Amino acid sequence: MKCTECGYDAPVAKFRYLYNPRIDAPITLRQCTQCQAWLVVDELKGVAKKSIGPGEDPWGKSAGIEGLAQDLREKPR
Amino acid sequence: MAVTAESLKELEKKQAWWWIAEKKRSRRLDYLRKAVWKKGAIGGLYPAGLIVDLERPVLQTEKARELESSADPYVIKFAKILAHVLDNKTIFITDHSQLVGYLGSTPNTITWDPSLASILNHEVINDPQCLPEPLDDSLRTIKDIVNYWAGKSDLDKILPYMDLDDSMKILSGAIGWGVPLARGGYSGKDYEYIMTGKRAFEDIIAELDRRIDDAYAKAHEPSASKEISNLYDKINNWEAMKITLEAGIRYAKRYARLARIIAENFETDPARREELLKIARTCEHVPAKPPRDLQESLQYDLFIQLFSRNEAIEGAWPARPDYYHGPYYEKDVNVDRVLTEEEALDLVGEFLIRAYEVSQYKPKWSREGLQGIEGTWVWTLGGVKPDGSDACNGMTIALLKAARLVRVSNPTFAFRWHPKVSDEVMRECFECIRQGLGYPSMRNDPVLVANAMHWHGHPIEEARTWVHQACMSPAPTTKHGFQPMRMANATANTAKIIEYVFTSGYDNIVNMQIGAETPPVETFKSYEEFFQAWVTQMKHVFSLVVRPVNRGRMLAPTLTPRPFLSAVSERSVESGLDVNDPSISRGNAWITAFTWVENIDSLAAVKKLVFDEKKYTLAELKEALANNWEGREEMRLDFVRNAPKWGNDDDYVDSIMLDCLREAAKFSRELKCPSGNSWPILPENVSGNIHYANVVGALPNGRRLGDALYDGGISPGPGLDKKGPTAVLNSCAKIDHITHGRAFLLNQRLSPTQMAGEKGYQLCKAYMKTWADLGIDHVQFNCVSDETLRAAQRDPEKYPELIVRVAGYSAHFVDISRKTQDNIIQRTVQGLA
User: Fold this and answer.
1) Average pLDDT in the B493-518 region?
2) Residue A37 sits in which domain range?
3) What pTM, to 2 d.p., does this model score?
């Protein structure tokens, strides 16, 4: 997997696992051990999608009436 | 900007409740709210500008040294040290305040009690960010203090008497929370003795004198029975109680003198001069004598809380302020009319602010588990009187209004709902929820009164006095019903139960055998076998957290006495026994079950995918969990998406919740506290779901090591409740909220757009009716939009006062970690229809 910020290339497991912002989506937050950027990672594809800053929610809104996560809307169960 | 109806409406539309509060509150409250130092840790660290107060530990240590060669028994020495601190600590009066008293020597200090635990003292010396400048001088002083108390602190004294194996497991931090100390936890109070206006410190001192004289006379009768021999210990306890009460009176009189000196020599504003003289008159009167008006009543209460916190680290603040201060409010505002409602609101609002600023240095695990606050100051409002009639009064409404004006995150309120609560009071509760405070949480009073009778045998009149001893658990405020110390140690990280089924009890995070050595998981041939292993682990974990507390409670009267708390407790004044002596307590213990629902979703996933559908073997699952689901994302998603989840009114998984609770409830009756009573469980989390995120390994519900655990006690996993609020309530209603456990925490998120106006109130009212009819004991709400929460995450400096409900408490959103913030945003926003 390649860091979108510094280009560091290593297996996914080498990027420090932070947490899963939604347990029901294949996205996680991992930290690049080279540049410390927080990355949004697609765990199914093993790809870093983008870096994430405070207040950003690339996984979509909360569940419920505020709307489903983007990933879930794209890939309904 | 001038306050106009239009400008307020505009702010309301933006849900900028903190700006509205600022514009609506009095100039005094505005000053006091802005002058107060926030003490809650940000994430796990104390905010910049706060410093550890070295005055108190220096006073404590110098007196302890002086008394080393004294022949006094320990309890007398302890009382004398406490008196020395109260007699000599620096006091101050904040401008514009009407209530006085603080634990530290300056408003920005956090007090540190070095006599509690050496492990805490080591945290202080390794926390240079919080130490006063010049750092070298501070470190020299601290080193001397730390060295002095090594081997003498409560924990150091108690540990040799504990089971070493249990202690190692508890101190590993994997399954337990806290330590079994009588001076470190949640102290209940005998408010029926001390807060009903029938007596105050001088009356108790007179009673103690009588008892000491009688005992002394009896001890010198020509006899030598065991009872007479025991009298000497009682005399010592009574003497110690007296020392602390007298010190309390002297402490108040120091404030009276200070207020009078400022008024008569320095204050130029005649109005403020009169306020200072009123403070002087108040402190000359209370706590020596029973209060006569609202200000004295609040001041009296505050003094008692501060003295108790000078004696112990109290992580909670059990209270029922509307019930006990209500009569004074009614008298001053409605009968004598010496206070206008606005003037009373100033006093009530300041009372909240004075509680908000209370702070004691706590260990990092506690700060992480209670991010953003100092402790769970959950004050109880509403409910019924001992005769069953409605207990709400003008003070109930004043407190709810004041909360919206000062918007502190601590104390928070929990409201004892019952069918006779007036619409006026319910609207005030709703306004607080709608305005995003996250409180009051709503408690089902009839259910919880019955629960207190069922589990601990409290008589109905006593059960009806109940207050929250910490976040959630009801405890009466009566002579035999109140619990002097709920030791935090009896808190289990229960997600470990299901984790240990896969590891045969070996904890891979802390590398030791903690759970029971159940057979290798891959050998189980049926779900029933698998579930029995879960039951075995459950019993093992609960016993492990209960045993040290039982032992600590037995040792407390001798090794770690509480003379002040004893002095304000009828049973100790009467018996001469320390308040923690189990023989004079009915018992009101409970096991807090953190991270409970992970067990249910995990068991359901195993039952469905391994045993019913046979898609995976237990060996395969064990390997995936051991590897933290690494490289098995599709399998992980299968366990999340294709296994039934709690909170969707699905009997498949809901019946597993009931199985687990029934097993736990059965075992709760087998476990006994030193008073001979039961140990029911109470599923809830504070922010333990974040604290334990890096302590709990991967689980079959699809979480990885590092992921936040579920946030509530019976709340569904965030985003996993797909079928709306009624389905959540229906799942929760399948639990018997009287016999399955002591209480069950349910978090819900509501849409602020839906809650607007009269329509919002009617929706909320209908929801509450369903909740009450279903017999659910608790619910609490977050009512802040994703948009606002994300904006606050992006620009925290623009949202310093944004409050959210974390779990059993509220906190300022900007004070909690990013992971906790995201966890709150993940929660499903329920639409009410």
Assistant:
1) 97
2) 12-74
3) 0.95
